[in-house]
Amino acid sequence: MRIVFYLPHDHRTLAPVLRRTLDTYLAFISAGGGALTSGEDPDISEAAFPLTPEFWEEARRHIEKSRFEHLDEMEQDSFWFRTLTKRGFDTWVHLIGGESDPTGYEFSFRSRLPWREPSGEYSVLSVKVPMQFLEDQGPEKAFELAQALAEPLPFSTGHAGLSLSFTRGRSRLLPLLKDHLVRHPGWDVPRASTWGMEEGIDGIHWMTFLGAPLLDTLGGPNAIRARLQHPETTVQELTGCRAVIRLGPAPLAGDTKLGETLPAYRELARFLEPWLMPSAPFVPFEGYTPEEMRHWWRRFLEPPPAAISDPRDG
Predict the structure, then answer these.
(1) pTM, whole model, 2 decimals?
(2) Rounded to whole angstroms, how far apart are CA atoms 7 and 68?
(3) 117: which residues sit within 8 A by CB, 6+ positions away?
(4) How far apart are the C-alpha atoms of 10 and 268, rounded to whole Å?
(5) Distance CA 218, CA 235 (A)
(6) Which tens digits make up the pLDDT trace of 3-55?
(7) In angstroms, rounded to a whole number, what is the distance separating the alpha carbons of residues 195 and 152?
(8) What is the tens place of the pLDDT at every residue in 180-206?
(9) Cα separations (Å) of 14 from 39, 110, 111, 219, 260?
């Protein structure tokens, strides 16, 4: 399961709360025996490294303190201006629960480039827990984790739900998963880039977090409740004029061949359609035609395929 927040702020604005989010995540996963053991950071090492006490301190320092002022104030032929604009982000800290045998635990923060006039990019905070966490701790604990992470973050939008995780070979594996993605629409494929999202919503998920100004545009929590009629859908207000929409007690993958078409997800997709951010024009999946990409992105907006009946049932 993946929990992600899109943050329309530079690192210097987010730095005061990032240590808190990391400590919150560590507290939740350690209670169930999970841990982060390896790290990746292009400014620390070119390869994954074990999280020794020294590297933990370095990783925390990277999270807690922004190093760069506005790029507009740098010389354009300087080393850091060329480095930052080439890689497309300010700071990236990526902590995982195993290098050669990933455990499914992951904490990742990537901050956008600090221009004086902000671009359409977002800073992104993303965490993952394995399916074993859901099985052992239960979906309510996963919901509590998402809420606890959301509490200090000035997010624009965010979401949580079942998500594919590619440690390597994404471009090679995605074409092999076409039939599975169609059959199980509740699984998400993480977005490769936030460029051009503006105020868009990144798909339909078990949980959808809404902040300003989008929540006001949608009419606020009460207006959303009035529009969403599925009995398992809840809309909960959060502090700071924010809200979270939850589609049932647990995330669902669905199975269109068995008629499990996820009606609550479809209802939310119809409500949010004007704000849904299309994936195909920006990050097409390798090996997918434009029509296949369109069909996948609109999987909750178009009529579901008919369930396949089992002759043994007759």
Answers:
(1) 0.90
(2) 18
(3) none
(4) 30
(5) 13
(6) 999 999 999 999 999 999 999 999 999 988 899 998 877 666 666 778 888 88
(7) 24
(8) 988 999 999 887 666 556 668 999 999
(9) 21, 11, 9, 27, 40
